[in-house]
Amino acid sequence: MPTCRGCKEDVDALVSVTIGGKRQKLCEDCADRAREEHEVARESESVIQGMMGYRGRRGG
């Protein structure tokens, strides 16, 4: 049985998810949780930048 890298439990099937540029194989529950956390982090960053008056691009 495959093992989820998020919760470390044996699962029937794994889902490939790309979060923050990294591909991970997680169970469906962990994949949903990771997607939600990533989306909340992006929205939070946008709000903070708006409060600070940041008008440039998000750079790297």
Plain-language structure description:
This protein is of the alpha+beta class. Helices cover 42% and strands 17% of the residues. Strand 1 (15-19) and strand 2 form a beta hairpin. The radius of gyration is 16 Å and the shape is elongated. The N and C termini lie far apart (39 Å).
Instruction: Give me the count of strands.
Output: 2
Structural class by SSE content: alpha+beta
The biggest sheet amounts to: 2 strands, antiparallel
Identify low-pLDDT runs: none
Average pLDDT, rounded to a whole number, is 88
Structure in a nutshell:
This protein has 1 helix and 2 strands. It is α+β, with helices and mostly antiparallel strands and 60 residues long. It has a two-stranded antiparallel sheet with strand order 1-2.
